[in-house]
Q: What sequence folds into this?
């Protein structure tokens, strides 16, 4: 690989780039100094279609169930963290308590539905998000 001049294109979100970028660049510097790397954002693109069309070589992100025609591997795991004001007194935080709180969904692609179908639904919190959306346009 020391002489390869291949161009690799992958799609990843900012968090993934932050975590994997530095070690990947170090590896490429040592093992593939002539390899070029293009990183595309994962927002607003159909990753499966981009892979099928050969526009990207790899998609890195959170996928609930990748299509079976693709190979996938777990790269790392992390814990979700809830951050609240030091003045807040919630006591024990569980799903019942979380369902009573307002939720904020940060969506870089402008579509909060993806968050509902994935992260929030998987944690049983979709009802709370629907309540927030119905009260606040």
A:
């Amino acid at each position: 690989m020391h002489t390869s001049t291949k161009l690799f294109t992958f799609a990843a979100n900012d968090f993934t780039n932050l975590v994997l970028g530095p070690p990947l660049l170090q590896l490429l510097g040592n093992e593939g100094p002539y390899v070029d790397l293009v990183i595309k954002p994962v927002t607003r693109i159909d990753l499966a279609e981009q892979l099928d069309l050969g526009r990207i070589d790899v998609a890195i992100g959170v996928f609930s169930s990748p299509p079976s025609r693709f190979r996938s591997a777990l790269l790392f795991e992390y814990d979700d963290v809830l951050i609240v004001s030091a003045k807040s007194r919630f006591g024990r935080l569980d799903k019942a308590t979380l369902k009573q709180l307002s939720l904020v969904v940060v969506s870089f692609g402008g579509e909060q539905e993806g968050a509902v179908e994935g992260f929030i639904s998987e944690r049983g919190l979709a009802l709370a998000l629907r309540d927030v959306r119905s009260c606040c346009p």
In short: The longest helix spans residues 14-31. Residues 128-137 have pLDDT under 50 and may be disordered. The beta strands are 7-12, 36-40, 58-60. The chain has five helices and three strands.
